[in-house]
Amino acid sequence: MAQARLITRRRLLGLALTTGVAGGAVALRDTRWVEVTRHREVLPGLEPGHPPIRVVQLSDLHRGPFVDEGYLRRVADLAMEMKGDLLLVTGDFVSRNWNYAASCARALSVLSAPMGVWGVWGNNDNYGGRVPKIREAMDGIGLRVLVNESVALEPGLHLAGFDDHDTAGMDPVRAFSRVPKGAATIVMGHNPLEFGGMRLHGGVMFSGHTHGGQVAIWPVPALVAADTQGRVSGWYSRPGARLLVNRGIGTVNLPFRMFSRPEVAVVDLVADEEPPGGQGLMEKDRGTR
Ligand SMILES: [Fe+2]
Fold first, then answer.
1. Is residue 3 part of a domain?
2. Three-state DSSP class for 205?
3. Residue 190 located in a structural domain
4. How far is the CA of 15 from the centre of ligand 1 (A)?
């Protein structure tokens, strides 16, 4: 009897060790194994014949104790290789600590694009009223953060940014107040919950926040989905609008990722060239993910 118990204990110990080693190997593989994802989407309102607009999106950098400046610089260099017309950083520049803002800005200082480098705040940037310090750092590298406001990138093409849903006053009415009805509009909002704001104006929205679950092992993605109306990563739709939830670059709470690789998203936004009454790309893609 005693021998049987000893064998069972050894087996359990062996199983725990094997699981631990396998888990460690996955974490080592996935935490900084950046994936470039490529997409093509119709931007409603974009004039037919307009050349595609390439958006390169980074999200959730989380410069902090777990995410060093060198890694973020390599990601920024990779983003530049994608030759975007427009570069977006959708929040969580730091992990709840503005002391890392200058370092994050140094890493991102290589970013530039013909239509500019833009961002929105994430919940981690807003905690404890730390935004002014981060804004100062981002202003210094020419990265402009939109807070419930918009800019015209060119005649008929607008970029809007929401403030964070959880930690600040997300206000889509203000954000869209200077965007003409029906104009082609690209939107940034850190939290996928902010997709609700797109009921006021169509367009293509970019968010992050979820880290794709970060440790995408049950029940983590289900818990994240419960907080974001089921939007964890990839594309989502509502009438007249599309949302890309980016898995982000850094980590939060835990220093590793599993089965949810860091992501640089490259999205070519195109005009709907279908004849009137035809079914555009947006319709074809609706609800597929
Ligand atoms: Fe985040």
1. no
2. strand
3. yes
4. 33
Asked whether residue 18 is domain-assigned, the answer is no
pLDDT tens sequence across 65-109: 999 999 999 999 999 999 999 999 999 999 988 899 999 999 999
* pLDDT tens column, 8-30: 777 766 766 666 667 888 888 89
Between the CA of 93 and the centroid of ligand 1 the distance, in Å, is 8
Helices (H) and strands (E) in the chain, counts: 8, 12
CA of 252 to the centre of ligand 1 (A): 6
pTM of the model: 0.90
**Residue among 289, 265, 254 at smallest CA distance from 30:** 254
Asked if 249 and 262 count as a contact pair (C-beta separation under 8 A), the reply is yes
Domain limits at 172? 31-285
Flag whether 1 is in a domain. no
Give the bridge partners for 117, in sequence order. 87, 143
Ligand 1 centre and the CA of 254: distance in Å? 12
Give the contacts of 175 (CB within 8 A, at least 6 positions apart): 146, 148, 149, 150, 160, 161, 162, 187, 197
How far is the centre of ligand 1, averaged over its atoms, from the C-alpha of 267 (Å)?
21
User: At residue 77, what are phi and psi to the nearest 5 degrees?
Assistant: -60, -40
* Distance in Å, CA 277 to ligand 1 centroid: 41
Find the 191 Cα to ligand 1 centroid distance in Å: 9
CATH code: domain of residue 80: 3.60.21.10
How many domains does one find in the chain? 1
